Amino acid sequence: MTDLSATTGVTDRPSGTAQQTGTTPDAIQQFLDRQRPETPCLVVDLAQVRNRYRQLRTALPDARICYAVKANPTPEVVGELVGLGASFDVASPGEIDLCLAKGAAPESISYGNTIKKRRDIARAHAQGVRLFATDSAADLANIAEVAPGAQVFCRVLVDNEGSRTPFGRKFGCLPETAVELLVRARDLGLDAFGVSFHIGSQQLEPTAWEHGIDAARRVFAGCAEHGLRLRMVNLGGGLPAAYTQSAPPLADYVRRIEESLDRHFGAERPELLVEPGRFVVGDAGVLRSEVVLVTDSCDGESRWVYLDIGRYNGLAETEGEAITYRLRTSRDGDPVGPVVLAGPTCDGDDVLYQRTRYELPRTLRGGDWVDLLSAGAYTASYSSVGFNGFAPLPTHCVDGDQQP
Amino acid sequence: MTDLSATTGVTDRPSGTAQQTGTTPDAIQQFLDRQRPETPCLVVDLAQVRNRYRQLRTALPDARICYAVKANPTPEVVGELVGLGASFDVASPGEIDLCLAKGAAPESISYGNTIKKRRDIARAHAQGVRLFATDSAADLANIAEVAPGAQVFCRVLVDNEGSRTPFGRKFGCLPETAVELLVRARDLGLDAFGVSFHIGSQQLEPTAWEHGIDAARRVFAGCAEHGLRLRMVNLGGGLPAAYTQSAPPLADYVRRIEESLDRHFGAERPELLVEPGRFVVGDAGVLRSEVVLVTDSCDGESRWVYLDIGRYNGLAETEGEAITYRLRTSRDGDPVGPVVLAGPTCDGDDVLYQRTRYELPRTLRGGDWVDLLSAGAYTASYSSVGFNGFAPLPTHCVDGDQQP
Prior knowledge:
The structure is a homodimer.
Chain A: H1 27-35, E1 41-45, H2 46-59, E2 64-68, H3 75-83, E3 87-90, H4 93-101, E4 109-111, H5 118-126, E5 131-134, H6 137-146, E6 151-155, E7 163-165, H7 175-187, E8 191-196, E9 201-203, H8 209-225, E10 232-234, H9 250-265, E11 271-274, H10 278-281, E12 285-296, E13 303-307, E14 327-329, E15 336-342, E16 351-361, E17 369-372, E18 395-398
Parallel strand pairs in A: 1-18, 2-3, 2-11, 3-4, 4-5, 5-6, 6-8, 8-10, 10-11, 13-15
Antiparallel strand pairs in A: 1-12, 7-9, 12-13, 12-17, 14-17, 15-16
Helix pairs in contact in A: 2-3, 5-6, 7-8, 8-9
């Protein structure tokens, strides 16, 4: 995650992305109040997951929605989405096994990682997976050899400006290379299906997809010159969750995407695929932590609040302070003051927010709780197996539609 | 880990720290050749762990050696060190349980984390742990209440210049605050034992301990003015493993430390405690990975080598390219060229070395292996539970003294 310039966070400020969910808003709160689970823990409301999926289904009725399993691979979450008819974007054999175990059909799975072992491609193909991402000649050759006849889409590199967690240059090729690869795919007996791109996760600029849709159009045109008619554009992920920074509502994203599609494809509109992860599960989770200790810094100029959750047991996305969670505490309502927030390990880098301004109740002390809101995505699965001897972050699922 | 300026790494260049171990150097290699374990995996040679412990025992005969369990909590490693009479620096209840389970005496355990829940202090005390670090009034009050009569040492903040992984300002207080806290500790009925500091892990400058020993002397003097005679200086960790950058030999560190102790304490030499982690286990481990894919970058100007090990399944210390491992490949001897090294996940930040220059054989391809040398510390325990569906890094132990 990239180190962005300092931003300002405040306690529990509702972000512009907060969508009306229609489910009991406090199913998670009720669970926390009644069960008082050991901390730290993540609580996910499956009703909110369903609701988000349906919102997106309504907003993009023609798109195939592939849930990005990496965002939250909790089996109950995957199972809910199987039940709703979702497709799945997977990164590894482990994620394929998980989806199949939860009842997903192999044809609902898109192997979206461009970095795949040859034997993992063969294994996926043997399991019935038929759709693969690629962005290199070496990977394409492997797919052609061990997954004959499979569908492939080629990932192009696009500008990630506006993203809180941009991708750098690890994935994607130039549009002209994509044309070469897709033509070669056809010549190798594969189904050259389309183009994908990713404008960066937690993308706060709805116009960002324009870059990718324009690039996709150029790849479509280039392939057409070789007599190859592509049919699909994979819009990737990027739709936001509600952190401290305001994000536009879903409708704004959809409108801009539709405008770009009209501009570049007109009546020749391709099939669409989207890979939401954070958007589906981010706002559906609350991470409860306990205050370990509150101290004054050595210079007496700042107050440090140490939580039992940190960068190595769930909050990996606080690296570079990229993702700034909204907070709620057991002392809300008391007068607040600025704090530095840090995790519980002996690691000097296990500091959550030092440049981002957070204000928490001055009365906060060891034993109080602090909830990190919208923490359903990219938390528990990042957790270390036991760095410093701390256990991985457990996940509890509740269902706001099943409340009494 | 801090983002340092670009450095130059090369393949398998022996570093100045490489100590003669006296054990069969290739016990790990033999295991890898014979067993061909699934990759990625870490292989640790217990003979090299023993050897390193004994080197340090000889070099610092008067110091109490507390192995920093966080560096590698593999039960076999902890068990070996229990057998050698080591003490243990622990960060959490989990690490205390591990040490006790492997036969460590409670009085051999130092609870070195200054960030402790009150109930975890009580639990440790009930288990027989009697030595605690502190650096704040809040933590000290907890210790006094739930671990009455315990020994405490106070951590002071010192300059970390020269460290590849400096601590920032998360831990430690000013020397004058340490005096206040230690005097208060005495007044609360605790045994105010001494002072600790940490000059940063992988410290390449043997004179770095001077800062901390000088600070400790000032705390001793300040406490003496209150009629409190401290008895112990905890020199922390910082001794290096053999990565691509040269590090001085152990003797240089010991000589500089002894000089500082003589200068500041003279005949009033305190008891010493050291907390080596990386030095004990770093060079004892080899991490075997497999090449997933080799590609040309989108601009055709760089070659990317993707391994099945990355930042999220073991190589957390490549963050900011802080730790630069020496590499060995199955194609060594073939002509080399520059590469970017990256991990297997769909995360754009899962890139190991992009600014650090690494050169690997031009013949390298998917299915070949790449060994990361001196990877025994801060690898497996950092591994995520399953980010992107990849399993945590397993550890295999061998014993070079038990070879046929």
